[in-house]
């Protein structure tokens, strides 16, 4: 066990939707990893809960299969898996009826003094039903928390309604709205870079920064989520939450501390300062795209409409936006954001491009002086790169070269990078809300996104076709090139 890994106090995690895809692929493997690192103390329990009728033993088998399938080679250890599955229990419950709730209460009553977390890994349509059942069956103790998955609404009105529904049962300090991007190692590192170094903060403003790019490119297509995705689209699925959270961490003022309220207050100010996009500027500031058949690393891939099996759809699988923040620090600094499915590769990064030097003392033979860039790579190969101009070594005179100070975490620390859920699941137990979204943040994000959706409708903005396996439609390239800049595109 590494010296920084401190065990958390014993807890009971009830995973509603314990048999679902999220539990299988993410939550169970994440909790297993926390056990491997020695962070789970006895008598911690994980309780799966959903309608399927399973015994504890059958659920343990479900978990073993999930771990076999989703852990990386060498991570599945029979002895550890046995300890882990001994912590697992299962209760069949139905959010829509009283079936199973008394049994759940009986089981939970064995651990009345432990931290109790309810994870809603179910469709948002039943968040309200489950919250009410939890209250009506008296499952709330002093140490109870609830974890809510995205999507939190599909527009401002539905987000307000959902927040009200959960808020009728739980206090804001008990509600953990998860955005798994905030649990990613490099995202947290962004705060370390900005606030634990003297170097960047004095330059972190419109006097020295030319523009910022945020790219979250995925190589996957719809997978098995057509029903959800076709109603959502890239703006709701990725921008309203993950990308705006990244933008907030880049743009926020220095909070007085890492305290959850202090950090979230600063993020909220950024969201409120985003310049509105409306029908008069939406076509200039945004691009919608939809992939057509093309190729990926694995070979030929279908287009979006073919994946929908012949459906007709105007849903965007790609979006690019030129966003601006109306405050002193960022006036005139564009934040170019883009995200899409079936792009040229899986690559997420934030590029902070500094302004060029104001005057060069070197003659033409020295070559072009590139502006400095700070590249924060979220995935794959998490790390940070700072580009700098140096002199080309050797006696050939003053020739300049653009090089990178490159810190790839896997190489620098020789350590496995923890999945975002590992950190966030235990932050709930530790009662630390810093990396979770507060109600007003979610609503402020919708207040900016909603008018974009409405403007698209008002002007009838079409989706531009792009070939699967590329960087998106040509209009997205034009969006940034019109301003004399280019997307950073290194995989
Ligand atoms: N999968 C992912 O990667 C991600 C998912 N999410 C969000 O997480 C949530 C769950 O997603 P996902 O796991 O993919 O969904 P799945 O459809 O795979 O799982 C849904 C789960 O809910 C249970 N369930 C459905 N109806 C009821 C009910 N009436 N009472 C009790 N349990 C019920 C199902 O079990 P049963 O049928 O046995 O009742 C199942 O365990 C969604 O809100 C999704 O948007 C967010 C980010 C990523
Ligand atoms: O929330 C979501 O995120 C995933 C991308 O997450 P990552 O950690 O793999 O980058 C995305 O595929 C999905 O559509 C979206 O709902």
Automatic annotation (TrEMBL):
Entries under Pfam families matching the protein = G6PD_C, G6PD_N
What's the protein name?
Glucose-6-phosphate 1-dehydrogenase
GO CC list: cytosol
According to its UniProt record, the EC number is: 1.1.1.49
Which keywords appear in this protein's UniProt record, sorted alphabetically?
A: Carbohydrate metabolism, Glucose metabolism, NADP, Oxidoreductase
Tell me the classification of the organism that encodes this protein: Bacteria, Pseudomonadati, Pseudomonadota, Alphaproteobacteria, Hyphomicrobiales
- Domain (Glucose-6-phosphate dehydrogenase NAD-binding): residue spans on this chain: 14-189
Catalytic residue list: 242 (proton acceptor)
- Please describe what this protein does: Catalyzes the oxidation of glucose 6-phosphate to 6-phosphogluconolactone.
Gene3D superfamilies listed in its UniProt record? Dihydrodipicolinate Reductase, domain 2 (3.30.360.10), NAD(P)-binding Rossmann-like Domain (3.40.50.720)
Q: Which InterPro entries match?
A: G6P_DH, G6P_DH_AS, G6P_DH_C, G6P_DH_NAD-bd, NAD(P)-bd_dom_sf
Family, per entry: Belongs to the glucose-6-phosphate dehydrogenase family.
Q: Name one GO biological process term.
A: glucose metabolic process
Query: Which pathway is it part of?
Result: Carbohydrate degradation; pentose phosphate pathway; D-ribulose 5-phosphate from D-glucose 6-phosphate (oxidative stage): step 1/3
Q: TM segments?
A: none
Question: What range(s) does the Glucose-6-phosphate dehydrogenase C-terminal domain occupy?
Answer: 191-488
Q: Where along the chain is NADP(+) bound? A: 51, 150
Any single GO molecular-function term of the entry would be: NADP binding
**Which top-level group of life is the source organism from?**
Bacteria
Catalytic activity, reaction form? D-glucose 6-phosphate + NADP(+) = 6-phospho-D-glucono-1,5-lactone + NADPH + H(+)
Keyword hit for NADP: yes
Q: Which organism is it from?
A: Rhizobium giardinii
């Amino acid at each position: 066990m590494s010296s920084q890994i401190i065990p958390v106090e014993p807890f009971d995690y009830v995973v509603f939707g314990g048999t679902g895809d999220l539990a299988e692929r993410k939550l169970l493997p994440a909790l297993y990893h926390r056990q491997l690192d020695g962070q789970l103390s006895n008598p911690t329990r994980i309780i799966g809960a959903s309608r399927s009728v399973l015994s504890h033993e059958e659920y343990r088998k479900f978990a073993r299969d999930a771990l076999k399938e989703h852990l990386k080679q060498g991570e599945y250890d029979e002895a550890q898996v046995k300890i882990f599955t001994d912590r697992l229990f299962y209760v069949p419950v139905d959010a829509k009826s009283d079936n199973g709730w008394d049994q759940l209460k009986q089981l939970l009553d064995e651990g009345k003094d432990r931290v109790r977390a309810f994870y809603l890994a179910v469709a948002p349509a039943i968040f309200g039903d489950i919250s009410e059942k939890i209250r009506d069956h008296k499952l709330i103790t002093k140490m109870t928390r609830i974890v809510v998955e995205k999507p939190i609404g599909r527009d401002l009105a539905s987000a307000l309604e959902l927040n009200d529904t959960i808020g009728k049962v739980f206090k804001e300090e008990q509600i953990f709205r998860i955005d798994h991007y905030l649990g990613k190692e490099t995202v947290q590192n962004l705060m370390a870079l900005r606030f634990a170094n003297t170097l960047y903060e004095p330059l972190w403003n419109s006097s020295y920064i030319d523009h910022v790019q945020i790219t979250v490119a995925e190589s996957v297509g719809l997978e098995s989520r057509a029903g959800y995705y076709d109603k959502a689209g890239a703006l709701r699925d990725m921008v309203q939450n993950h990308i705006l959270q990244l933008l907030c961490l880049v743009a926020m003022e220095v909070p007085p501390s890492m305290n959850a309220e202090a950090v979230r207050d600063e993020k909220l100010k950024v969201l409120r300062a985003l310049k509105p996009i409306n029908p008069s500027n939406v076509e200039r500031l945004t691009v919608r795209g939809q992939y057509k058949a093309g190729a990926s690393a694995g070979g030929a891939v279908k287009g979006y409409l073919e994946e929908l099996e012949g459906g007709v759809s105007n849903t965007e699988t790609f979006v690019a936006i030129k966003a601006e923040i109306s405050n002193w620090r960022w006036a005139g600094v564009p934040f170019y954001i883009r995200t899409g499915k079936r792009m040229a590769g899986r690559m997420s990064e934030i590029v902070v491009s500094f302004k060029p030097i104001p005057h060069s003392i070197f003659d033409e033979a020295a070559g072009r002086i590139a502006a400095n860039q700070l590249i924060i790579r979220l995935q794959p190969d998490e790390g940070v790169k700072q580009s700098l101009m140096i002199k080309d070594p050797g006696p050939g005179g003053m020739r300049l070269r653009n090089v990178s100070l490159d810190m790839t975490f896997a190489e620098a620390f020789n350590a496995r990078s923890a999945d975002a859920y590992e950190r966030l699941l235990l932050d709930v137990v530790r009662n630390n809300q810093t990396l979770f979204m507060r109600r007003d943040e979610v609503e402020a994000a919708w207040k900016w996104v909603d008018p974009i959706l409405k403007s698209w409708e008002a002007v009838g903005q079409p989706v531009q076709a792009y070939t699967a396996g590329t960087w998106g439609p040509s209009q997205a390239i034009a969006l940034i090139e019109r301003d004399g800049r280019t997307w950073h595109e290194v995989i």
